[in-house]
Amino acid sequence: MDILTTILGRDGAQQSAHTLAAADADPFNRLHLAADMYTDALTAAAEQHAGPDVMARIDTAAARLGYHLTDAQAWPVLRRHLALLAIEGHDPIDALHHAAATGLGDAHDPAAVLDWRLPTPTGAGATDRGPLHWLPAIPDVITTDPTWATYLPQRAELVSELADHIRGIARAWDTATAPAWARPLLDGNRNLLAEIAVFRAAHHVDAADPRITGPEQHANRSAIIQQAIHSRLDAALTRAGADTARWRQLADTVDPHLTDDPYWPRLATHLDNAARAGADVPALLHDAAAQHGPLPAEMPAAALWWRLAGTLAPPSLEGADTKLRPPWTADLHHLLGTRIAEAVITDPAWPGLVAAVTAANWPPHDLLAAAAEHLHDIAATQIIRPDEYARLLTYRVELLTHRAVSYTPLTPPTILRRRTTRPPAYLY
């Protein structure tokens, strides 16, 4: 499945040598590689200075603790942390046993828990941090080693330069150039936006991931920075994480493997937007599962969205196509106000809204007025960000035309259905 996904991702995307060279030079593509190379080099240097006997003792002590510690996702991070403590004169075995003294219970990643409990190496403290906030600094004992004294600082300098380049690009983003995840942050603190861009690039977060900082981080320092970022964000901006919790129980009734799919956070966001647009999400999910049979073992969340998309989204490609200006564009300014209308027109979901309105057998103004009225009702009780309007309008238009809304439409009496759109004169 991974091979097929890679093939499809490149299908039809012919790239010149110039384009490939530009992609290789893109700091967003380079930062995670540079950060990984710095970390690997620092790990190798720490392990070399600690010596094979110390590293063997660390491995043996970890294996004896149980908990499948050496198989845990964060074990390489914990091992490096112990090596850094060792070269600073601490006993890594005592540090490991002390960290495990209070037990680990049913921790999902015991190595991450232990890493969290270990003391911070003095060479990587707040006053002497690495090239990124969550990367350890180079210990003094390594900076004086001729083998590493030049190479490691150069690696750190490259990481810092790439991060600064990304910060400059992110601060200049506007509605036409910002990726989808960044659009909610454009009206806020640009310095915070720049730091989030660096965090995502350094952790290789998929640009399509709607979560502001991407997946939950397990490494101690990365997790601390991720939590610090979340603490500075408005609750509405971190709703993508809440979406996954809100729909998890329902997802388990459809397929217990849905939430294990990397596509699950995006599906949860789609479901939340559909619910806000008025869709009966439980009914849609169960109908999709019942009508098309069991979901595949590989990428079940993506497969489920493919089944739902026919009802919730028109067949169109996303992209900020500013050339699309149907005759009813002016109606958006009247119904939503200029600020929101401009956000809708520059949104990647704009082509989808144009396709949905064009395909509907309704007068565009009436259809948009009905959809906008629903969003105004929502906005009276909860916040709708400007970057959410395009997709919510698209979903609402699709739901109105496909009648997948969560209420039963009232059928007016025949005499009213025959009435003209203009009320009788005596009502004026």
List keywords for this structure.
single chain, disordered C terminus, 428 residues, mainly alpha, 58% helix
Notes on the structure:
58% of the residues lie in helices and 0% in strands. With 428 residues, it is mainly α. Among the domains are: 27-144, no CATH class; 245-312; 328-406.
Write the layout of secondary structure elements.
Elements lengths: L1 H9 L6 H9 L1 H24 L1 H14 L9 H13 L4 H9 L9 H8 L22 H4 L7 H21 L18 H13 L17 H12 L7 H16 L9 H13 L4 H12 L7 H13 L16 H8 L1 H8 L4 H10 L4 H16 L9 H14 L11 H4 L11
How can the largest sheet be summarized? none
Number of H- or I-type helical stretches: 21
As a percent range, the share of strand residues is under 5%
Mean pLDDT: 80
Overall strand count: 0
Sum up the overall morphology in one term. Answer: elongated
Radius of gyration: 27 Å
Structural class: mainly alpha
Q: Helicity level, as a percent range? A: 55-70%
* H/E element sequence: HHHHHHHHHHHHHHHHHHHHH
Taking pLDDT < 50 over at least 5 consecutive residues as the criterion, the unreliable ranges are 404-428
- Separation of the first and last Cα atoms: 65 Å
